[in-house]
Automatic annotation (TrEMBL):
Gene Ontology CC terms, in alphabetical order: membrane
Alphabetized SUPFAM superfamilies for the sequence: alpha/beta-Hydrolases (SSF53474)
Protein name: Alpha/beta-hydrolase
Annotated InterPro entries: AB_hydrolase_1, AB_hydrolase_fold, AB_hydrolase_sf
Residue ranges of the region described as Disordered: 17-37
Ranges that cross the membrane: none
Ranges of compositional bias, category Pro residues: 23-37
Every AB hydrolase-1 domain range: 46-320
Amino acid sequence: MQYETLTANDGCTIAFQTSHPLAPAPPTPTSANPPGPPSAIPSTCILLLHGFSGSSAYFTRNFAALRQTHWVVAPDMRGHGLSSRTRGGYHVARLAADLRELLAHLRSSANSKTTPSPTPCRFVPVGCSIGAAVLWTYVELFGEDPDLAGFVFVDQAPLQDRSLFGAWDETRAHYGCFDEKRLLAAQEAWVSRPAETHRALVAECLGYRFRPGAGDRVGEEEAGRDEEFFTRISAACDGVWLARLLADHTRYDHREAVEGITRPTLVMAGRRSGCFPLAGMAETVGRVRKGGSVMDRKAELSVFESGHWLFYEESERFNKELLEFMDRV
């Protein structure tokens, strides 16, 4: 995997990791032979979208397995990782607009390099946490892109807040941030107590930390490495910017937008997630099956025995199920 960048229409730099270079690497001053053209890019692309306060580094346990048969791209959303942030821009809709620009950039860059040529590249986006919300917003704003072959949503309910509408209560909403009072408390924590909040995030999102089980085999040393890994990524973000993004994210109701999805859909949920109950994530499957007039709407739920970051805790199973889904779509 290597990092490349694009510039969004408002000047924000969006960094992304790619398993296949999109342009020749510049020659080094001591290179006798300049590098040749980039290698051919597979015609199927897995697009990995990280969660709130994360980065593309989240997928360190997934890249090697997935890139063997597919082009793999993982962006750092604006305000996260190596991407920059602008004045404003802390909205899920802005992240969806960035995704649209990224897809256009990837299409253009891969246009003459796909294998077999001239087959157009097909994308399967994998939205983890807020990454799922970005995909739902993308569908609502821009419709279903013809080059999107299917969708994978990982441990995110289509509405975080509790709501008067649709019987959306504690059985479906986010466990900890689900109304105005708790949102304000969460914002204050991200701004005023960042180190404590980063550690609390780890305790909430790793299943063996949130709900320890008799079968867990994670020792103190490994648990310490996990905490350092995730807190370091989270600490790279600006707390104020994140707090303002959280306000938009937690209130955003995607339930009706989900009904507009017609492509095959896989929902992955963590049984020991500290973010959502299983019923909240199962709502996405029901909404995809419900929407529109297409009768054969393929949507399925896969429940993992880990937490919110199931792609990390159960990486082998995650990779296997994702690759099987790629084969089906």
